[in-house]
């Protein structure tokens, strides 16, 4: 169960990143070309938020199953001074929750905007902010916070 969850959570990270990059590119192009917000643009907005929500669900389940997180909460006296434990116990979840809230607000606000120009602008700003936070919070093999492989 834990292995499967880690594999899925690690793999879906690439879908989160690719969908966000594509959404940001779409919003940038639409905004600067003063294009109309098409049904396809709306689907891209919708699916980007949905993929991120799927990753959020997996993250929450993984959080309840992870031996690392369990150890973190049982031994807070010692684990609060260890960056690896602190990262998976608190930093990762706090940053990722913030990113997904920003993304969700951006998606909802863009959906409700009446002008196409404003829809693209909202998507561009909120999705870029979410992407930046997600990039910082991923345990890349080169991250100074905690490292995990690119692929499981
Ligand atoms: C866009 C959102 C997220 C992305 C892109 C993401 C990405 C990742 C990646 C790449 C890993 C390393 C996987 C590996 O071991 O190979 C990881 C680990 C983990 N993530 Fe996330 N994550 C996200 C959101 C969350 C959330 C919201 C939670 C908790 C509610 C969470 C909980 C965890 C836990 C507990 C681990 C590691 C567990 C362990 O090593 O035992 N993640 N995440």
Care to describe what's here?
This protein is an all-alpha fold. The protein has one domain. It is 80% helix and 0% strand. It has 6 helices and no strands. α3 (67-74) crosses α5. The protein binds protoporphyrin IX containing FE.
Structural class: mainly alpha
Q: What is the number of helices?
A: 6
Shape label: elongated
Instruction: List ligands, each type once.
Output: protoporphyrin IX containing FE
Helix and strand arrangement:
Elements: H1 2-32, H2 39-65, H3 67-74, H4 76-79, H5 83-112, H6 116-137
Helix pairs in contact: 1-2, 1-6, 2-5, 3-5, 5-6
Name a few traits of the molecule.
152 residues, 0% strand, binds protoporphyrin IX containing FE
Provide a short characterization of the protein structure.
The protein is mostly helical.
């Amino acid at each position: 169960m834990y292995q499967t969850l880690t594999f899925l959570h690690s793999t879906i990270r690439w879908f989160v990143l690719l969908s966000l990059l594509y959404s940001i590119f779409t919003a940038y192009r639409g905004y600067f070309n003063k294009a109309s917000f098409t049904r396809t643009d709306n689907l891209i907005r919708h699916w980007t938020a949905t993929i991120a929500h799927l990753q959020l669900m997996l993250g929450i389940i993984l959080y309840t199953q992870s031996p690392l997180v369990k150890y973190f909460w049982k031994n807070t006296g010692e684990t609060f001074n260890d960056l690896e434990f602190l990262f998976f116990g608190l930093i990762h979840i706090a940053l990722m929750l913030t990113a997904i809230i920003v993304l969700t607000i951006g998606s909802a606000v863009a959906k409700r905007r009446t002008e196409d120009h404003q829809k693209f602008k909202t998507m561009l700003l909120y999705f870029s902010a979410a992407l930046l936070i997600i990039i910082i919070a991923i345990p890349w093999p080169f991250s100074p916070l905690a490292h995990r492989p690119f692929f499981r």
